[in-house]
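Record format v2
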Amino acid sequence: MAWIGLVLAGLVAIYSATHGPSADVTAFEPEDNFIKQLLWLGISVFGVLVALMLPVRFFQLAAFPVYIITTALLVVALLIGREVNGSKSWIYFGQTGIQVSELAKVGTVMAVAQLVGMRRPKTMDLKFAFMLVALILVPAALIVLQNDTGTALVFFGLIPIALFWSGIELNLLLVMVGPAFAGYLAVVFAPAAYLFAIVFTGFILWRTRDKRITIVTGLLTGGITALAKIAMTKVLSGYQLARVLSFTDPGAEEFRQNVGFHQVNSMAAIGSGGFAGKGFMEGTQTQGGFVMEQSTDFIFSVIGEEFGFIGSVVVLGLFALLLVRLLTLGSNIKHPFGVMMAGGVTGVYLIHIFINVGMATSLLPVVGIPLPFISYGGSALLANSALFAIVLSLHLKRDDFSIYGY
Amino acid sequence: MDEGRSRVRIFSAIVVIIIGTLTLRVGKMQLVDRQSHTGQSENNSMRERRVQAPRGRFFDRNGVLLVENVPAYTLYVTPNYFDDASIPLLAELLSVSDSTVAHQIQLARKHSLYKRSIVQSNITLAELGRVLEQRHVLGGIDYDITQKRTYTTPANMTHALGYVREITSSRLAERADDLYKRGDPIGQSGLELEYERYVRGQVGADYKMVNIKGQVVDDYLRGSMNKAPINGLDLTLTIDADLQAFAESLFVNKRGGVVAIDPNTGEVLAMHSAPDYDLDLFAARLDPTKWSELVNSPEEPLFNRVTQSVLAPGSTFKPMIALLALSEGTIDENYTYYCNGGHPIGRGSFFKCLAKHGSLNVVEALKESCNSFFFEMMRLHDVNTLHDFAARFGIGEAPYLDIAKSEIRSGLLPDSAFFNKAYGERKWTQGYIMNLGVGQGALEVSPLQLVRYVAAFASDGLMVTPHLVRNMVDIQTGKITTPEIEPPRRVKVNQTYLDLVKKGMRRVITDESPWLEIPGITSIGKTGSAQTPRSGTSDALFIMAAPAENPKIAIAVIVENAGFGSGSAGPIGSFMAERYLTGRINPIRDIYMKSMMSKNSATITNN
């Protein structure tokens, strides 16, 4: 199974990141991370097995309670949580920390699926859409308050995916996604953003033949582009700006020693891996401690450097296989709850993968977010495994869905 | 569910597109831009460590090890990881001043932030140990094991061997194409300089992986890129270590020089210039005050008196004049000259002789070293005739020796053109020329030139090329190469006339200075004392060869400001020849040894 392959790949990479010579210099890569990850894996496997035995109705019934509990935990973390790496999203039970924002993903995806499942088929009204968005925005906002922008991004990214998957009109979705892309272009290369805004608006006009929507689209894409420009020149402070801008050229003189440092070294690590890589525990960048956070957010540079293009393709290929398989499984369930569950899970994974690998390869700015199953992090592994297990369980018992659910 | 199906397809497509984009991005980095990323990564995490090849060892002519290498330690800093706050600590550990360390760090910073530079070379193992104990607070500090020279015999051979020092910036600029880098050792004088390209070997490289703090973690890529150094060639010298050490012991409290060669081959058996200096000064970290003492000492220890000191040869030149007169047919065996205690041309003290010798033939004149006779000889000859004749024996030209050309001087053998230029045409008199007959005036000869000349006389005209290296051995392949040296050439001389001159030189020993006679061995020689360019007592000179019938050693000695040649210079030559030929000094000569030891150079007075 792709899942097993990915978890194993993660363990290998974590082992290399924490047990190599780098362990001497990088205080934040403690060697027992590997053992801890093994423990979490054990817990996760147990969780998966339990999930497979639970009946379908349990998930449906549990969806909202889980959502409420995990969201409540977010509030608790905000109040009494401990700050780790600048974000207050951890609750500690003795020595063991739980990153509640990871758990909130499970609750949110389940709640969204349940909401979609309760809805009468083929109805898509604005009220429903707002409910759905609100369901996602509540935990997202809490996570933003916790100062964990990376995880919050996953929630924001989940919005268009959930809308799309639950049957929103494609055009409407495009109108929502277009401005986001324009904003990205505005940071990378402003003229391209303006050009995109114009072309995209034209494209929407051609598709919808609807002046109102076109005008909204034009205002949104153009507005976001302009807003991004203004934010970059007026609103953002120097450091924040540098952090956003640095990914476009992390090696530039003004960035390479500060905000661009992570990405310069991550790219050097991945790039120098070449076709076949430098070999297990042989990565000079990673073992030399040049890549920070290499067992968590920058785990992909360990894979890229030590296992080369082959290793990278295997990991990315496994992800593609897993995601497409999840989608197919989901569509086989033939019940909105299951379909939405699969879509949501896939969406969460996809956003993680895109942001994480995109950041390691300097396609995107540095956003602290783990690579599912591979990065070190118990809560994340548990949460991601739980999501996976739920979809798997729903698929296995797809005939148990009440026909009246429709 | 058609709508649903198409959404699955669209979503799957998005998944594939996003992951495909990431794959392309990774592919571009790892396959297309790999080189630049590899460079970046190497810049980061790879440190090249030069592994100095062991310099070739030096052996004497009998295989005695003279010079070898011992480990030394060089401390480096990578400035980016070094905290200036630890300068005082580092200075204390190295027992140098804070400003010295601060200066080195500043230099290093100027050189490169990320590449390491030398903080201190040649530190002791104890110092290294102290530094390594504090390594956790001394970021960016690491070390290399290098090699330094060590000298294994009592013989110093200072001027022959020369010294090795860290390459200077100016020299580095000249020799950058020869793969020299800052901190590399390079021969700076003597054989170390002349044979640099042979004894240096090939520098190897170790590629080390460093971590983000600049500390070495491991071999880079398991050492697969490492290059082992290649040893330099071992040199077999022509020097006899025992004779050399003996010669050096004879020069205690004397300034001067001695060179002994094999008259058949030109191999230099011993070469010593006094005072010398301790080459270990250079093997260790050179103390600047000691260096300036060496440079500024009035006794000029850096000066090689064998090859660079060109002085009037005095009476040691008389055999040359005698052979000239005989060869030109001006005189013969029966010719006599009457010495009245001076030469009649001279109206004054200038052309005085040492005594009233009466009537003398050429053999007696050599034995007595009669000035009047040799003034007369040069009255009878043109200066150009002398010039052409003496030039055949290497006077006036820089002799070859396998040390740097800059360390060898050619001296002066005048001809008429020289006098015209120096004094103006016809402004110089015969007196100037006659003065050359006794080795004074406008003559400048080095001990190395003298020894070639006496060797040629002893071996019936064989002019040899003095050299210090017999061969070079590649210890990896066992291949032996011999440096290319001009083979001996024979100067045409009339054997009868030469035998007459040698007879006179024999009698110098037997009749005039019997204490110079080596028991059981016949030797020929000529003493001299010459006006010194320094103030005070004249310089003592001696040239000799032994055994007379089958010469195996020729020697030239100069002792500065020591008076008569027979007193100080003579015994040095004689004792050395005995030591070389018999391996010992006959105890019956102890009294002469003691006497010689008391005849020292007068102290240099500054006036």
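Residues 169-235 of chain A form one domain.
Chain A has two domains: 2-167+255-400, 169-235.
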